Amino acid sequence: MPEQTDHLIAAIAGPPPAAPALRMGFPAPGVEYPFSVGDIAYATARRLGPGWNADAGYWGTQGSIWGPYTASFTLLIDVEGDLCMVYDVAASDEWPDTPQLPPGVREFPAGLFLPDACVTDGLDHIADQLAAALRAITGT
């Protein structure tokens, strides 16, 4: 009887089975998109350091970042699928007129966007790009 119990305990204590990549022809949750726009906001704020904070919008489809400036920054995906960061340019706290944006980041009237960013770039890389862009536009 102890041998049967030992096998049962080992089976229970072992790692859970991996989630299937597809369920009835569809990806399992978290497989296709392992992080949300809200996660990108949190990761970016962490990279910016003390004095910066973030919050995720409903369902993680948006993210807000704020720090030592009057303006706050909203991350979202536009209708073309680009990751955008919009902010009130008028509340610019005397930021540089012509910031030197990092590679892969472009300006548009409401803020900036990453036209080539995709989930396969990984959360860390995207957050690094956005943190560098925020430092460029704020002049820090």
Instruction: Give the SSE order as H and E letters.
Output: HEEHEEEEEEH
Shape: globular
The total strand number stands at: 8
Q: What strand line-up does the widest sheet have?
A: 3-4-5-6-8-7
Query: Per DSSP, what share of the residues sits in E-state strands of 2 or more residues?
Result: 15-25%
Would you identify the regions where 5 or more consecutive residues have pLDDT less than 50?
none
Termini distance? 68 Å
> How large, in whole angstroms, is the Cα Rg?
21 Å
Mean pLDDT across the residues is 86
Secondary-structure class: alpha+beta
- Major sheet size, sense and barrel closure: 6 strands, antiparallel
Helix share, percent? 25-40%
Number of helices: 3
What's the short version?
The protein is α+β, with helices and mostly antiparallel strands and 140 residues long. The chain has helices at 2-13, 37-48, 123-138, and strands at residues 22-23, 26-27, 53-56, 63-66, 72-77, 83-87, 106-108, 111-114.
